[in-house]
Input
Amino acid sequence: MIKPTIATTVMKNLLKLEELAQFLACVIILKWVIGVQWWVYLLLLIGPDIGMVGYLFNAKVGAITYNLFHHKGIALVVVLISWVSGLVVMPFAGHLFITGIILYGHASMDRIFGYGLKFGDNFHRTHLGWIGRGEAVGAEREAGQGQ
Output
């Protein structure tokens, strides 16, 4: 297993602080800019995890559906669509904006805890590294001991 250095630990903590700032910005937008109801915060915390339903089929489908709900670029596209549709006075533009903010905020929250976008081969393998029970498997693979 590769031992983390002080520099890598500091960098990981800086990235977590950056994600925390993004998450808090989403909360501020929802609370003070839009003024959403209390239950919207529950959606922020758990709503996008509906993407895990794809894992009922297999790891590849699960990774695709999970990543659709946890990709910050997709969240920003939803926000952009809400802005453009708001220019043509679409009644659902506000809901799209809230949806985009929830998706973005949730992705930031997950990354604070080390959960990243999923690879299609294993639920525990993310772009941030191995998580949960997969950490031991990931450590073995990195060390070249197992496959």
